[in-house]
Amino acid sequence: MQISSNSVVQFHYTITENGTELESSRQGDAMLYLHGHNQMLPKLEEALQDKNAGDTLEVTLAPVDAYGERKADAIQSVQVKHLQGAKKWKPGMVAWVNTDHGERQVTIVKMGMFKADVDTNHPLAGKTVTFHIEILSVREATEEELAHGHAHGAGGHQH
């Protein structure tokens, strides 16, 4: 089956910049998404269109098509109690913060006793990245997945 709108696609990925690995799903679970429902980078989804299980591909994206350009004014001060992901924080670490727009990754710039200065740019902002994709499976979405607007993994949904 070819990837098309309303397909559930499972794949492994590795993201590199100039040949250096930045992130990979290979040490854990493969990614799963509902194609055509704006659940991933648009140019990456476009490259996956019409591919099949077993296909591999490389897609290089400029910052504007990947995680955006870095914004110099993206430093904010947040209370340490709102940082999620570790118990002790140091500059350079990535944390999660709940915002009005959902969870967001931030990078610690400076730590204080009660507040931290964080960079709200995505950790990969400003980078030209290459996605190395291996498509594991492609199937039609179930009616339930379409109604929920996302793919369900093994064992169904957890909501």
UniProtKB/TrEMBL annotation:
PPIase FKBP-type domain residues: 6-70
What EC number(s) would the UniProt record show?
5.2.1.8
Intracellular or extracellular location(s): Cytoplasm
What residue intervals traverse the membrane?
none
Catalytic activity annotation: [protein]-peptidylproline (omega=180) = [protein]-peptidylproline (omega=0)
Q: What class of enzyme is it?
A: isomerase
State the Gene Ontology terms under molecular function: isomerase activity
Keywords in alphabetical order: Chaperone, Cytoplasm, Isomerase, Rotamase
What InterPro entries does this protein map onto? PPIase_dom_sf, PPIase_FKBP_dom
> SUPFAM superfamilies, from UniProt?
FKBP-like (SSF54534)
Free-text function comment from the UniProt entry: Also involved in hydrogenase metallocenter assembly, probably by participating in the nickel insertion step. This function in hydrogenase biosynthesis requires chaperone activity and the presence of the metal-binding domain, but not PPIase activity.
- Family assignment? Belongs to the FKBP-type PPIase family.
Q: What is this protein called?
A: Peptidyl-prolyl cis-trans isomerase
